[in-house]
Amino acid sequence: AAWDIAYVGILSTAVAFALFGIAMRAAHPAEAAIIVSTENVFAALAGALLLGERLGWLNWSGAALILVAIL
Q1: What is the spatial distance between Cα 38 and Cα 50, in angstroms, rounded to a whole number?
Q2: Considering all CA atoms of the chain, what is the largest pairwise distance in Å, rounded to the nearest integer?
């Protein structure tokens, strides 16, 4: 089981962060800042849409505040 956990940990963490770093180097600095700033908002939205998670009004308000602060 340890090898399975290590395999999943390496794939989901190390490879994902490496690809994210490569993509951020290729992006314009302003675009990269927007992408990094909105990462939590899109994660919450994906959780709600894909996994059926329910977000309360406080969560949606926080996401709206993040988007407004970026713009």
Answers
A1: 18
A2: 46
Kindly list the averaged pLDDT for each block of 10 residues, start to end, along the chain of length 71: 82 86 91 86 88 89 86 75
pTM, whole model, 2 decimals?
0.58
DSSP annotation string for 13-32: IIIHHHHHHHHHHHS-HHHH
d(CA 34, CA 17): 17
Amino acid at the residue 52: G
Residue carrying the six token digits 């959780």? 47
Rounded to an integer, what distance in angstroms lies between the CA atom of residue 47 and that of residue 41?
10
Q: How big is the CA angle at 53 (ends 8 and 66), to the nearest 5 degrees?
A: 90
